[in-house]
Amino acid sequence: MHARKDSLPASILASIKNRRRRLDAAHPETKPRTEGTLIASYNVHKCIGNDRRFDPERTSRVIHEIDADVIALQEADTRFGERTGILDLNRLERETGLIPVPVDGMAKAHGWHGNVVLFKRGLVRDVHQIKLPGLEPRGALVAEIELERGGALRIIAAHFGLLRHSRARQAKMLVELMADRAETPTILLGDLNEWRLGDRSSLQTFQSVFGQQPNAVPSFPARLPVLALDRIMANRKGVVTAVEAHDTPLARIASDHLPIKAIVNLGRVAALTSKG
């Protein structure tokens, strides 16, 4: 049964209406990089594009386009058997300056359950690898980074499950984890696999810690994004601003998700850190 057009959320209708403008945009990847400290989240879909082609080089070019200071990747390792990293992280470091937050016990994998956090300038103070509850093997990587420009920031990079009940448990676990150090400026980013709103949505669980959610940014499917599966949110007002999709011709084909990105207010982070 198909929903009537007038019952669709406004964000979905807007994305459909803007499809032609998006596809006709001339080389938006040449747009100048936004000033400030940029964070991003990108489900790379194991480097398999919408053309069903496995192409890690193409995925790396999208990461290069984004030019983030901190970026969380999902599905950056093979999923079954002995997890193995897919990207050439040494080349990424040479070309972009991004280095991975270290993880333990994963000899060939880039990250933890496919979650990788890369950063350019700063010092990693602490790392935790969290196994999230649910039927599927899912995880979250928690890293505290001392930013070179000032202020300590906790990053929680997560990839939630496909099942609603699993997502509810996963969200609850992360909120309980944050209760230990609620004063730390924290950014949660990743593929939360949640498009629903209201009481049945796992996003509701985050209200107590993250407050009012930022405006939804559709990121899936990449060619015509109508669902806001990927999220960036902060536990302090004013820390994150200007969340948007990285919507370029290359990003539309390289994965089934568009990357999303936002600016971090380092002045706000530094002020909150000094109070803590």
Descriptive overview:
This protein has 276 residues and is of the alpha+beta class. The protein has one domain: 4-Layer Sandwich (Deoxyribonuclease I, Chain A). Helices cover 25% and strands 25% of the residues. The chain contains eight helices and eleven strands. The chain has a six-stranded mixed sheet with strand order 3-4-2-1-11-10. Helix 5 (164-178) links the parallel strand 7 and strand 8. The protein is globular, with a radius of gyration of 18 Å.
Shape descriptor reads globular
Radius of gyration in whole Å, from Cα? 18 Å
Strand order of the largest sheet: 3-4-2-1-11-10
Q: Detail the poorly predicted runs.
A: 1-8, 25-30
Briefly summarize what is shown.
This protein has helices at residues 10-17, 19-24, 56-66, 89-96, 164-178, 207-210, 249-254, 266-275, and strands at 37-43, 70-74, 99-100, 116-119, 122-132, 138-147, 152-159, 186-191, 230-234, 240-245, 260-264. With 276 residues, the protein is of the alpha+beta class. It has one domain: Deoxyribonuclease I, Chain A (4-Layer Sandwich).
Topology:
Blueprint: H1 10-17, H2 19-24, E1 37-43, H3 56-66, E2 70-74, H4 89-96, E3 99-100, E4 116-119, E5 122-132, E6 138-147, E7 152-159, H5 164-178, E8 186-191, H6 207-210, E9 230-234, E10 240-245, H7 249-254, E11 260-264, H8 266-275
Parallel strand pairs: 1-2, 7-8
Antiparallel strand pairs: 1-11, 2-4, 3-4, 5-6, 6-7, 8-9, 10-11
